[in-house]
Amino acid sequence: MTPKKESPLARARAFFAVPGPVDPLMAAIVVTLICFGVVMVYSASAIEATVQRHDPQFFLKKQVAYGTVGLGLAWVVSRIDYHRLRKLTYPILGVVVALMAACVAGLGKRGGGATRWIAVGPVHIQPAELAKLGLVLWLAYSLAKKGEGVKTFSVGFLPHLLMSGFLVLLCMKQPDFGSAVVLLLLTFTMLFVAGAKVGYIMGALLIGSVAGAAVVRFREYRWQRVVAWLEMEAHRQDLAYQPFQARMSFGSGGAFGLGLGKGLQILYLPEAHTDFVGAVIGEELGFVGVAMLCLAYVTLVSRGIRSAFKAPDDYGTYLAFGISTLFALQALINLAVAMSLLPTKGLTLPFISFGGSSLLVNAIGAGVLLNVSRHATEATAGAGAHEAPTQGAPA
Is there a contact between 166 and 158 (Cβ–Cβ < 8 Å)? Predict the structure, then answer.
C-alpha cells in the first residue's frame, strides 16, 4: 500500500508551524519603532518634500509602504523555523557578494560621492545593509558547525576574519566606511561570544584599528570630517554644517521638546529624515523622548540577548546574539553621530530612518530574532515541565 502524499496545504502548515509564542515585549517594541519611524520621517521630511517634490507626503508614502512590507516580513519570518536558514546561508552570502561586487564595478547608482545602491526599477537596494545580516547568518552557521574548533587560529579564527575582511574590502571600495566598521565589530563580538581566544581578537582589533586610522588619515574627505568634528565651531558654516545643526536641534529641544511637527532645525538640517532623524527627535520630543527611544533599543537588545541565552542550540544563540548586536551597534553609532559624539558616518537609525533597504533588512532580522524567541520559550517551558514534581511526589 503506497503512503498517502502530503498535500501542499499540509506542507505549508508544517513549514509555518510555530513551537511557541514570540516574546511579546520584543514584538511590541519592533512594531512601535517602525510606526514611530513613519511618524518621525513625515515630521522631518514634510518641508523638504514640499520644496523639492511638491508633495509634503512624498517620503511619508514611501515610508508607510516600507513599514507595511517590513511588518509583514517580520511576521512571516518569525513563523519560519530559524533552522531552515542553514540551507540558505551560502546562497544569501553569494547574492550579497554579487550585489556588492556590482556596486564596486560601477554598475550601481551613484550618490553623495559613493556607489552604494543597485537600482531595480523604482527600488534602490543597498547591498551593504544586506551584508550585515548575511554576515551574521554565515557566522552563526560556521561558528555553530565548528564547535570547539573555534578556539583554534587556523580553523576557528582566520576563516571568519578573512570572510569578514573580504566584505569590509567591498564596502571600502564603494566607499562605505561606516558599514565596514559595523561588519568588523560584528565579527569580533560573535567570535568572542563563540569562545575564540581573546588574544587573537585583541591582536586583530589592534591591527584593524591602526589600518582604520590610516584609511581615515590618508583619505582627504574622511580626514576633513574628523577635523570638522574636532573643531566644529570653526567649521560650522562648511565642513561641520550638518553635525552642528544636529547638535543645535538637541539643544533647542530641552527636556520635553518643542512638540511633534514643531521643530525648526529641519529648515537648516540637510537630509534630516535619513541619518540625522535622531536630531529631529531630540528637538521635537526633547531629552525625555530621546531617553525613551534609547530605553526601547536597550530593551529590544536585552530581550534579544535573553533569547540567545535560552536558545536550544548554539546556532540559535549565535543568530540571536549577532542580530541583537547589529541593532545595538547601529543605534549607538547613529545617535552618537547625531549628538556629535562621533564624526559623521552614513549609518541609519534602525527601524526609524527613511530608507527601504535598512528598514526591510532590520525587519527580517527582527523576524529571525522573534523566531528564536519562540524556540527559547518552548525550551524553557519544556525544561519547566520536565523539572516539575509529579503529583504525590515530594517537591
Answer: no
Exposed (0-12), middle (13-18) or buried (19+): which is 45, by Cβ within 10 Å?
buried
Would you list the DSSP string of 242-289?
HHHHHHHHHHHHTTT-S-TT--SGGGTSTTTTTTTHHHHHHHHHHHHH
Query: Which residue from 216, 145, 214 is spatially nearest to 178, judged by alpha carbons?
Result: 216
CA gap 297, 302 in Å, rounded = 8
* Surface-to-core class of residue 31, CB atoms within 10 Å of its CB (0-12 exposed, 13-18 middle, 19+ buried): middle
Residue 362: is it exposed, middle or buried by C-beta count within 10 angstroms (0-12/13-18/19+)? buried
Would you call 149 helix, strand, or coil by DSSP?
Answer: helix
Widest pairwise Cα distance in the chain: 86
Q: Would you give the distance in Å from CA 120 to the centre of its chain? A: 22
Q: In angstroms, what CA-CA distances link 315 with 17, 75, 124, 146, 280?
A: 19, 21, 32, 11, 39
Please, are residues 300 and 26 in contact by the beta-carbon 8 Å criterion?
yes
The answer to whether 223 touches 217, Cβ cutoff 8 Å, is yes
Q: Which three cell numbers stand for residue 38?
A: 513613519
- Write down the pTM of the prediction: 0.91
H-type alpha helices, the chain = 8-15, 24-53, 58-78, 89-104, 127-146, 158-173, 177-194, 198-217, 220-230, 241-253, 277-310, 314-338, 356-387
Distance CA 240, CA 225 (A): 7
pLDDT tens digits in sequence order for the chain, 395 residues long = 455 566 666 665 666 667 788 999 999 999 999 999 999 999 999 998 998 888 999 999 999 999 999 999 999 999 999 999 999 999 999 999 999 999 888 877 776 667 788 877 667 788 999 999 999 999 999 999 998 899 999 999 999 999 999 999 999 988 889 999 999 999 999 999 999 999 999 999 999 999 999 988 888 888 888 888 888 888 888 888 888 899 999 988 999 999 998 988 888 888 889 889 999 999 999 999 999 999 999 999 999 999 999 999 999 999 999 999 999 999 999 999 999 898 888 789 999 999 889 999 999 999 999 999 998 876 665 555 444 444 444 43
